[in-house]
Amino acid sequence: MKIVIVHYRYYHGSGPETYLFNVKRLFENNGHTVIPFSASYPNNEPSPYSEYFYKPIVDKFHLNENKNSISVTDQIKIVKNSFYNKDVFKKLTGLLNDERPDVVYVLQYGTKLSTSIFDAAYSLNIPVVLRLSDFNLVCAKNTFFNKGQICTKCIDNRFNSVMDKCVHDSLTQSFVYFLIQKFNHIRHFQNKIDAFIVPSVNTMNLIKKTDQFKHGNFYHVPTFISKEEDQRFLNKKKSSLNAGIRLCYLGRVSEDKGLDILINAMINCIKKGIKVELDIIGDFNSDFGFNLKKEVDRFGSKQIKFLGVIDSNEVNITLRNYHFSVVPSKWYDNMPNSLIESSLEGVPVIVSKIGSLEELIQNGYNGFTFEHLSSKSLEATIISLVDLGEKEYYKVSENCIKWIREYCDKEKHLKRLLKIFKRVINEKTSK
C-alpha cells in the first residue's frame, strides 16, 4: 500500500512527531511505501519528497520566537493562509498526482497547513484518515482547560473561545481563531474526511458530542510502542521501598499538567517525615515553571529536584531509576507518552482520575489513582505506597509491562490501521 502521511512539521519536536516517525517506520518495515508531506523547515529530517513540501512565510515554527521581525504584510499573509492555504493545496495536489497513493493519513495540520489538504485529496478521490491526538478540532486551547479548570463550553458554542480570550489571552487572536473554525465549518470540511482515528475513548466521546463531528466515522486505535523492553533490566530489582520511594514526573511543566498538585502533596509528605523523593524532568523555562521552582526552593528540601530536559533517547534508561512516575493532570490528557514509556519499563504510574487516565490505569493492578485535583488524595496515595510490600510492588510492575505490551502492541496497531485504510479505500472506489 502507498500511504501519504501529512503532518505540519517533519522533525522531532514532541509526542506527535514521535508517533509520526514511529508509524512511518512501522509501515515501511511491513512492506508499505510511505510518502511524507509537511511544511519546509530548516531542521526537517531529509526526505526525497521535500521538493513537494510547502515553503512557509517564516522559517520558525513558533512565530513568537521572532515576531518582531515579521512584516505587517507577512503577518496578513499568515492569517490569510490560516483560513485556506492555496500554496499547500497546489503542493499537495502535485504530490498526489505524481505518486497516486492509496490513502492519505493526516496527523496534525492546524493553521500551518490549513484544511486545504483535505480538498487536495478529495479533488482526486483519494480517501483521507485523520488521527486526533488533541482537542484542536473543537477547543481553541487544544486542552479543554482554561483559567485553571476543565472547560468544555465550546462543545456547544465555539464563540465562548472569544469571550474567554482562549488564544494567548488575546481577544483579537481568539476572534480570528473563531472565524477560521467558522469558515471551515461552513465549508463542511469534515465531510471530506473518511475516518477519524483516536487514541483515547474519552477523547473520541468528547469530540463526538459536537454537532459538527457527531456523524463522523470514529475508530479507537491506541498509540503503539515502537521499542522492545530490555530483558537485561526486567529482572533487575530496585532498592527496597522501605528505604524510601523515588518518584518522577516526565513531561511539560505547565498548569494543566497538575505539577502544583504534585508539589503540594510532596511538601506535605516531607513535612510528615515520609521517605520520598521526586525528580521533575521537563522544561521549566516558563512563568509557571519558575514560580513552581521558587516555591520548592523556599521550602528548602533536597527531596524535590528539577532536572530539566533530557534527551529522548535517555528516557527509558532514566525511568529505571524510579519506583513510580506521576501523571497528575488537571486536563483530559490524551494517553501521554510518559505513561506508555513508564509502563513499558515496569514503572507503575500514579494518575489523576480523569479522562483517558482513568480509562487506562486500573488502581492496584497496573498503576495507582488519586482523586482529580486533590493534593490530599495524592498525598494519601504516596504515603500508602511507602508501605507497599516488595512482592506487591513487583506484581504491579509486571502487570504494567504485560498490559502495555498487550494494549499498545505495534502489530495490532498496524492491523487496525490497515483494516480502516482498506475500508475507506473500498468505500471510495465503490462510489
From TrEMBL:
It is an enzyme of class 2 (transferase). Residues 242-399 form the Glycosyl transferase family domain. Keywords: Glycosyltransferase, Transferase. Pfam families: Glycos_transf_1. GO terms for molecular function: glycosyltransferase activity. Its EC number is 2.4.-.-. Transmembrane segments: none annotated. This is Glycosyltransferase family 4 protein.
